[in-house]
């Protein structure tokens, strides 16, 4: 489809390639806007290639990617701002041109334009605005007392914790998903211990009693005005904001990975639908190379890539297959585990399973049909080269980041994570904003156990800040990583800020630096009910915190 004129200065089109940019310059275009996320389809030209081609001919290129049906007012306003700043003709493109036209139309509609006229204008180009405009209405602002963004482990736990202390306070959770997952269980799904269904429940069933649930997504924060914008077009004003949307798994950051996940021997326990495939591959592999990867930090549960490897190798050992299977661990980092006290026990299993350790190896591409993984290898001098590794089985842990609506907000630090005081979990600049879970920039491990410890601290500190009689609490960075080194034994790593060991049990009962059957029993039998029946219901078992200092409590 060629360029189609929508306004005197705006044209829209389907995906363009770098070879089209020179002709656009000759036609008088000064700006190009990409409304399509990179990696959306196989063979799609990346925006960076368009940008470089545009730069050579003096065209300004802008990246404003949106997902169909998920953009909101903020994206429409950014589109309008880009168009207003363009000195001449602008071409906006996506897969078909529909998203580009819709972004323009939504801004016009919210600015008071006639809906029928807009729909007619866009329909002449072959696009249907009906489903898009139905999501929006002229701006209305709804008031909320405590607004929690995210219905994962951290969001549900903090809402329940607040309710357990002050049942009369008004709390609203914003979460688009229909299902809630016990993600720590996916390691055991991939190891053939749990069924995947055991880790999933309907979101409605775990929303705490008395808490409102808005099934929508946040698209933008305006902390200066105490507002958030939702993907359904609504604006919510809050008195206190708790940010807990978790992080995102960037599968598309590894070339070719999305096209081969779930087939060609490529899997990951980081996804509900793929963990069963991990177990199927483990049972089916009789020989060859099994590769397990770990990307640069930070990631959710830094031990999970190793857990998958140890459980797989233990199964192959029990089936007398390990002598025919080469197991390799390819870690973008420089150490096996970040807290040194746990490394000796892990190294015993590395030797038992004859695991080939490869550090400073960052996975950048996967050729599924040929079963080849490509790594960028960095040496001690900082020099790097590419290395191709064949595989029969590949378990991938993808790169991870904060969600885009967090990264591009005033709440984020330079790396994109929510900027909090690491002790109180209060935002560093906005006193009525709090955050917990995987999205924060505190230097703790991103685990469910960390969220379990953080929830009562945020609840207590928030309530104290708004006048309730609660003693402010201090977060010590506690996190836990039960490292499943074999079926039936776990190295229970528990630590806080600076790698300080923070064991929950005395060493005579459970020495976390050694593999124990008691730790496995906790992981398999005790922690799931603690999660569903305690953590998500405001019953604070297995949590630890300390009173805040005077300086922390007055932040």
What does it look like?
By secondary structure, the chain is of the alpha/beta class. It folds into three domains: 4-133, Alpha-Beta Complex (Protein-Tyrosine Phosphatase, Chain A), CATH 3.90.190.10; 151-247 and 402-553, FAD/NAD(P)-binding domain; 251-401, FAD/NAD(P)-binding domain (3-Layer(bba) Sandwich), CATH 3.50.50. The protein is built from 17 helices and 28 strands. Strands 6, 7, 10, 11, 12, 13 and 24 form a seven-stranded mixed beta sheet that branches. The protein has a five-stranded mixed beta sheet with strand order 1-2-5-3-4, sandwiched between helices. A hairpin with a 4-residue loop joins β11 and β12. α3 crosses α4 (98-110), α4 (98-110) runs antiparallel to α5 (115-123) and α7 runs parallel beside α15.
Short synopsis of the structure:
With 555 residues, the chain is of the alpha/beta class. Strands 6, 7, 10, 11, 12, 13 and 24 form a 7-stranded mixed sheet that branches. A 5-stranded mixed sheet has the order 1-2-5-3-4, with helices on both faces. A 5-stranded parallel sheet has the order 15-22-16-17-18, covered by helices on one side.
- CATH level-four homologous superfamily name of the largest domain: FAD/NAD(P)-binding domain
Tell how many strands the DSSP assignment holds: 28
Overall number of structural domains: 3
CATH class of the largest domain: Alpha Beta
Mean pLDDT: 92
What structural class results from the helix and strand content?
alpha/beta
> Largest sheet at a glance?
7 strands, mixed
For this structure, the CATH topology of the largest domain is FAD/NAD(P)-binding domain
């Amino acid at each position: 489809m060629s360029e189609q004129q929508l306004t005197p200065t705006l044209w829209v089109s389907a995906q363009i390639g770098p070879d089209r940019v020179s002709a656009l310059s000759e036609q008088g275009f000064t700006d190009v806007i990409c409304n399509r996320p990179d990696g959306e389809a196989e063979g799609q030209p990346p925006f960076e290639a368009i940008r470089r081609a545009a730069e050579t001919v003096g065209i300004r290129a802008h990246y404003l990617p949106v997902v169909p049906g998920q953009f909101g007012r903020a994206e429409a306003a950014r589109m309008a701002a880009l168009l207003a700043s363009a000195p001449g003709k602008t071409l906006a493109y996506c897969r078909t041109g529909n998203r580009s036209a819709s972004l323009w139309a939504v801004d016009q509609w919210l600015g008071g334009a006639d809906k029928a006229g807009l729909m007619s204008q866009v329909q002449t180009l072959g696009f249907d605005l009906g489903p898009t405009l139905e999501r929006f209405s002229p701006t209305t602002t709804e008031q909320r007392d405590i607004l929690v963004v995210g219905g994962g482990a951290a969001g549900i736990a903090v809402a329940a914790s607040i309710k357990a202390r002050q049942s009369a306070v008004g709390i609203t959770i914003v979460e688009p998903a229909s299902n809630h997952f016990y993600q720590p269980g996916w390691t055991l799904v991939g190891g053939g211990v749990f069924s995947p269904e055991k880790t999933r429940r309907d979101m409605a069933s775990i929303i705490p009693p008395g808490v409102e649930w808005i099934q929508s997504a946040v698209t933008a924060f305006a902390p200066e005005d105490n507002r958030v914008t939702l993907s359904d077009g609504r604006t919510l004003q809050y008195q206190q904001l708790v940010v807990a949307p978790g992080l995102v798994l960037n599968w598309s950051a590894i070339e070719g990975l999305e096209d081969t996940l779930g087939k060609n021997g490529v899997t990951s326990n980081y996804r509900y639908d793929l963990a069963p495939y991990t177990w199927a591959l483990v049972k089916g592999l009789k020989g060859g190379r099994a590769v397990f990867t770990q990307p640069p930090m930070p990631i959710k549960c830094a031990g999970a890539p190793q857990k998958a490897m140890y459980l797989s190798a233990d199964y192959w050992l029990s089936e007398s297959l390990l002598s025919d299977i080469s197991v390799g661990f390819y870690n973008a980092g420089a150490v096996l585990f970040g807290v040194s006290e746990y490394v000796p026990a892990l190294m015993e299993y590395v030797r038992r399973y004859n695991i080939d350790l490869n550090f400073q190896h960052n996975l950048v591409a996967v050729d599924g049909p040929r079963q080849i993984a490509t790594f960028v290898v960095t040496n001690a001098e900082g020099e790097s080269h590419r290395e191709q590794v064949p595989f029969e089985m590949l378990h991938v842990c993808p790169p991870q980041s904060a969600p885009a609506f967090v990264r591009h907000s005033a709440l984020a630090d330079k790396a994109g994570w929510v900027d909090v005081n690491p002790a109180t979990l209060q935002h560093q600049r906005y006193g009525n904003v709090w955050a917990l879970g995987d999205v924060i920039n505190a230097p703790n491990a991103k685990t469910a156990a960390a969220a379990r410890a953080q929830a009562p601290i945020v609840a207590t500190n928030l309530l104290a800040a708004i006048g309730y009689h609660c003693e402010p609490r201090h977060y010590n960075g506690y996190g836990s990583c039960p490292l499943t080194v074999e079926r039936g034994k776990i190295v229970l790593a528990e630590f806080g800020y600076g790698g300080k060991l923070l064991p929950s049990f005395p060493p005579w009962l459970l020495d976390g630096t050694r593999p124990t059957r008691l730790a496995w029993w906790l992981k398999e039998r005790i922690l799931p009910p603690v999660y569903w029946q305690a953590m998500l219901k405001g019953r604070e078992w297995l949590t630890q915190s300390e009173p805040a200092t005077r300086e922390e409590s007055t932040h």
